[in-house]
UniProtKB/TrEMBL annotation:
Belongs to the short-chain dehydrogenases/reductases (SDR) family. This is Uncharacterized protein. Keywords: Membrane, Transmembrane, Transmembrane helix. InterPro entries: NAD(P)-bd_dom_sf (IPR036291), SDR_fam (IPR002347). One of its GO terms (biological process) is abscisic acid biosynthetic process.
């Protein structure tokens, strides 16, 4: 939830200046799944999906978005 709210407000500013970069921290469980409990994996998969959608929407405004999954 925090990642979404921060991204939402920061992206508005970055779209206006037409540049910027957002980095979100997820987990490898968000990509592969099956290693930790379902609730944790579900939350991290949501973060990865939000990042992928953000890239599709914000790329038009030269805003990059990356998701680190340690």
């Amino acid at each position: 939830m925090v990642a979404f709210l921060v991204t939402k407000h920061v992206a508005c500013i970055m779209v206006l200046v037409e540049r910027g970069s957002i980095v979100i921290i997820a987990s490898i469980c968000g990509v592969t799944g099956g290693m930790l409990p379902y609730s944790f994996t579900n939350k991290k998969h949501t973060v990865v999906g939000m990042c992928r959608e953000g890239v599709a929407e914000l790329g038009w405004y030269s805003v990059s978005m990356n998701c680190m999954s340690p």
